[in-house]
């Protein structure tokens, strides 16, 4: 088991290195001169622009620029943005926000998704089941942009203006965990719906299995049959889904972050791609790649916990 | 364990309270009564400043809004848009070439040091030097000796100081310009002309990043703590009580950083934000009912144009073609419908917010499709036209509207071409990959008619300014020079207006619309006023 984990982590190194080169080359290939773009619609003094290009090595060929980046990286220097802010400082602050948001979303997704799925599966074919399926269909079909703005307007603005309830902040991360509830739900919206449906299907299938009938015939309580035997087996596809979703929740929060003005990596990534700030884009994407790798590893290890037949050597 | 429902409820509430308290303690940013003094700050919307706060390197609106609160300018602008002394006691000249600036006594830096003339000379020399890579360096291009500190691409400066700047005594300094410039006093209200304290420079004479993160100014507000760019969501300022100018009535000011103005508007309506200086386009239609008399709608000094690539494409050489295109555009419908009234049709090269504007000066700026068609056909204009725009600034809709106008009025084929950034249009024009018309906008640096003319249309501005069309007319240049050296304001304005007449005749650009300021404020404040440079006038704002 220990050797398996180490092997998997060692495999991550070439993947991460490859990702840096690939992303660096992609940013390099973007059209336009980032320095003249900095000046907006007024022209920058050519002498100043040239001095800036020299400072950021923008006149050098791709591989040389990459070499500067990698040598800096190995010395623990992640580079700076075009406004001289160290990338490391930027990433630490922004990832804090994004991690808070992603985990709030993941917890909401797990609790609501599995809860609703379980409820629907146990009431299969009844009105509750149909209602839950209808709600999930709605969640899947309405874009995040709409749910985000509608919930912000209704729960953030109108609730405060009409009833004086100031529980959900409109925007920003000023109110501790409360700031993340609404954006977390919006971000997890479609995932909640998928997870609900997945849980329901998975559980309904497991409940038809022979060993469930055996367990019931043995006279076990219904709670024990469902909790100990059915749900545990039904969890395997759900854990896979949740694990893969963590990466999506972290990297795909651009819209949610901008609706709720959360200063996370999604917004930073969009802005840095736009400004062609190679070091920032590479830093963020590499970190996201690592998150995917680690999340997948954890999922694989969880299989063994859920199903004792699975062993890793 | 068996617990009764009541106990469960109490325990749950206690846990929740604990969690709330813990989170409240760990949330880094103070907010609404969480600040030490307990006073709620006046909160204003801000986009993330592009850079840290170096006065000589801040040419964008967000950074200069912050600097405006921290620094006091040499001159301010009165209601008649005339420059009046603020930090300066007097600004005098006899020949528009040698200017003597005397400071009022009593101004101090936030660290307690007195403000002296040397602080201005240091700051200006620093900003002008190309080795310091300050984006506002060109503002000092008129000072004698600028070429010594900024000789151009690939060359090394021969001096660290401009010979045109001379300290007379602690409260007086003298500026010698390379050529007479009557508008110099008007220029001095701009961000780039702020001074810098001794504390800003390190041993090698560079302005430090530590200073730029927490600038020490001589103005109304001082920074509470260094600004961590990229991570901080607010910039918190406290009133500087030793400031001798007009002091604001409240003691805490907070800039809240937003990336989306729609979101900020929602916060404004929920009273989580007090001042928003530019409302989102989507809110304009309802802002009046949402905000009532807390909605501000006033002229802004900006202009939007359609520009001709005269230097690159001979198709537009005949001025009759340019006139026809101008008359084919229905400016009123664009301003009222596409922009929901947040723009007004342009009828001069000088904006109505500035002295020198003449209503209806540009006769060919009136919509006349029949005449346009006649002119265009007679001049044998091209059968196919292109308009380029940068699609990062909400220009698509009005450019499409112009294209529809041109198609229906002139009966020709018109295509619109999006570019990712404005700079990309210029790159493609220079590389001859694109040869069509393009949109262009201008926001003023200082409120003078000259600022709408020389930086955009003079021959010198092709190389160093914003003359992207490559227009050049010696007669125009000469009138600008005459205006620059004229003895009185009235006289120089006369020459500038004549220069503007030449533009109207030559039409290198077509003025399409003038901007308007659409701002709003919450019920917690009153007396919000926005000045010509789009800065909030803090001394007039009051908490209600």
TrEMBL record, chain A:
GO biological process: transmembrane transport
Pfam families referenced in this protein's UniProt entry, alphabetically: BPD_transp_1, BPD_transp_1_N
InterPro entries named among the record's database cross-references: BPD_transp_1_N (IPR045621), MetI-like (IPR000515), MetI-like_sf (IPR035906)
CDD domains, per the entry: TM_PBP2 (cd06261)
Keywords (A to Z) from UniProt: Cell membrane, Membrane, Transmembrane, Transmembrane helix, Transport
Subcellular location: Cell membrane
Its membrane topology: Multi-pass membrane protein
UniProt domain ABC transmembrane type-1: residue ranges: 95-303
GO cellular component, one term: plasma membrane
Protein family (similarity comment): Belongs to the binding-protein-dependent transport system permease family.
Official protein name in the record: Peptide ABC transporter
Automatic annotation (TrEMBL), chain B:
InterPro entries, alphabetized: Peptide/Ni-bd (IPR030678), SBP_5 (IPR039424), SBP_5_dom (IPR000914)
A single GO molecular function term of this UniProt record: peptide transmembrane transporter activity
Domain named Solute-binding protein family: residues: 84-461
One Pfam family named in its UniProt record: SBP_bac_5
CDD domains for the chain: PBP2_NikA_DppA_OppA_like
GO biological process, one term: peptide transport
Protein's UniProt name: Peptide ABC transporter DppA
Residues spanning the signal sequence: 1-27
Sorted UniProt keywords: Signal
SUPFAM superfamilies xref list: Periplasmic binding protein-like II
PANTHER family from the UniProt entry: ABC TRANSPORTER SUBSTRATE-BINDING PROTEIN (PTHR30290:SF83), PERIPLASMIC BINDING COMPONENT OF ABC TRANSPORTER (PTHR30290)
GO cellular component: ATP-binding cassette (ABC) transporter complex; periplasmic space
């Amino acid at each position: 088991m220990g050797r398996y984990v180490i092997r998997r982590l060692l495999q991550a190194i070439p993947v991460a290195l490859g990702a840096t080169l690939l992303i660096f080359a992609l940013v390099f290939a973007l059209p336009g001169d980032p320095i003249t773009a900095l000046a907006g619609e007024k022209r920058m003094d050519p002498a100043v622009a040239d001095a800036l290009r020299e400072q950021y090595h923008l006149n050098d060929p791709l591989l040389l620029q990459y070499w500067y980046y990698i040598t800096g990286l190995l010395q623990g220097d992640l580079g700076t943005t075009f406004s001289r802010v160290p990338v490391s400082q930027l990433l630490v602050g922004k990832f804090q926000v994004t991690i808070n948001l992603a985990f709030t979303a993941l917890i909401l997704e797990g609790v609501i998704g599995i809860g609703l799925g379980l409820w629907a599966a146990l009431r299969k074919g009844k009105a509750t089941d149909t209602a839950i399926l209808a709600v999930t269909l709605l969640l899947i079909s309405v874009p995040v942009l709409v749910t985000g703005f509608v919930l912000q307007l209704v729960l953030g603005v109108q609730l405060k203006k009409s009833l004086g309830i100031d529980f959900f902040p409109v925007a920003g991360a000023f109110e501790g965990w409360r700031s993340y509830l609404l954006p977390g739900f919006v971000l997890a919206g479609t995932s909640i719906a998928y997870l609900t449906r997945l849980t329901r299907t998975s559980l309904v299938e497991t409940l038809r299995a022979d060993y469930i009938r055996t367990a019931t015939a043995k006279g076990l309580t219904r709670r024990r049959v469902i909790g100990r035997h059915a749900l545990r087996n039904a969890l395997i596809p759900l854990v896979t889904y949740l694990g893969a979703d963590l990466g999506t929740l972290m990297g795909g929060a651009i819209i949610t972050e901008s609706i709720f003005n959360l200063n996370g990596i999604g917004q930073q990534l969009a802005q840095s791609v736009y400004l062609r700030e190679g070091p920032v884009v590479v830093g963020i994407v590499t970190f996201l790649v690592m998150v995917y790798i680690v999340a997948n590893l954890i999922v694989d290890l969880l299989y063994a916990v859920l199903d004792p037949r699975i062993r890793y050597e | 364990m068996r617990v009764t429902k009541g106990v469960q409820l109490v325990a749950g509430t206690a846990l929740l309270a604990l969690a709330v308290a813990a989170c409240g303690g760990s949330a880094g940013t103070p907010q609404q009564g969480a600040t030490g003094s307990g006073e709620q700050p006046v909160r204003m919307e801000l986009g993330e400043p592009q850079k840290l706060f170096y006065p000589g390197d801040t040419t964008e609106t967000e950074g200069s809004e912050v600097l405006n609160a921290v620094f006091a300018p040499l001159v301010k602008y009165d209601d008649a848009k005339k420059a009046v002394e603020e930090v300066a006691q007097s600004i005098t000249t006899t020949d528009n070439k040698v200017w003597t600036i005397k400071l009022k006594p009593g101004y101090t830096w936030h660290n307690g040091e007195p403000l002296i003339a040397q602080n201005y000379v240091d700051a200006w020399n620093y900003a002008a030097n190309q080795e310091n890579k300050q984006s506002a360096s060109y503002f000092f291009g008129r000072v004698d000796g600028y070429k010594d500190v900024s000789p151009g691409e690939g060359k090394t400066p021969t001096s660290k100081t401009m010979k045109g700047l001379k300290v007379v005594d602690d409260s007086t300094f003298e500026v010698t310009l390379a050529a007479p410039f009557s508008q110099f006093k008007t220029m001095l209200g701009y961000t780039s002309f702020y001074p810098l304290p001794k504390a800003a420079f390190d041993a090698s004479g560079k302005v430090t990043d530590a200073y730029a993160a927490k600038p020490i100014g001589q103005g109304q507000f001082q920074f509470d703590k260094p600004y961590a760019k990229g991570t901080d969501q607010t910039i918190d300022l406290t009133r500087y009580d030793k400031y001798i100018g007009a002091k604001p009535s409240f003691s805490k000011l907070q800039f809240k950083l937003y990336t989306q103005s729609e979101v900020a508007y929602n916060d404004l309506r929920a009273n989580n934000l007090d001042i928003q200086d530019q409302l989102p386009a989507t809110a304009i239609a309802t802002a009046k009912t949402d905000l009532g008399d807390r909605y501000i709608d006033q002229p802004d000094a900006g202009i939007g144009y359609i520009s001709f690539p005269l230097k690159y494409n001979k198709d537009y050489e005949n001025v009759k073609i340019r006139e026809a295109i101008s008359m084919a555009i229905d400016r009123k419908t664009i301003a009222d419908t596409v922009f929901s009234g947040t723009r007004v049709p342009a009828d001069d090269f000088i904006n109505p917010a500035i002295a020198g504007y003449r209503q209806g000066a540009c006769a060919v700026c009136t919509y006349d499709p029949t005449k346009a068609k006649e002119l265009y056909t007679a001049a044998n204009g091209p059968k196919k036209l292109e308009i380029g725009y940068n699609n990062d600034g909400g220009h698509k809709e009005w450019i499409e509207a112009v294209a529809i106008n041109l198609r229906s009025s002139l009966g020709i084929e018109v295509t619109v071409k999006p570019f990712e950034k404005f700079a990309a249009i210029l790159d493609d024009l220079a590389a001859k990959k694109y040869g069509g018309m393009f949109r262009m906008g201008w926001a003023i640096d200082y409120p003078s008619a000259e600022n709408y003319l020389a930086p955009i249309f003079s021959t010198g501005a092709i190389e160093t300014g914003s003359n992207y069309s490559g227009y050049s007319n010696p007669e125009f240049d000469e009138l600008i020079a005459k205006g620059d050296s004229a003895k009185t304001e009235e006289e120089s304005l006369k020459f500038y207006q004549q220069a503007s007449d030449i533009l109207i005749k030559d039409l290198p650009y077509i003025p399409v619309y003038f901007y308007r300021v659409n701002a709003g404020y919450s019920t917690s404040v009153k007396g919000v006023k926005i000045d010509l440079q789009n800065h909030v006038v803090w001394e007039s704002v009051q908490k209600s």
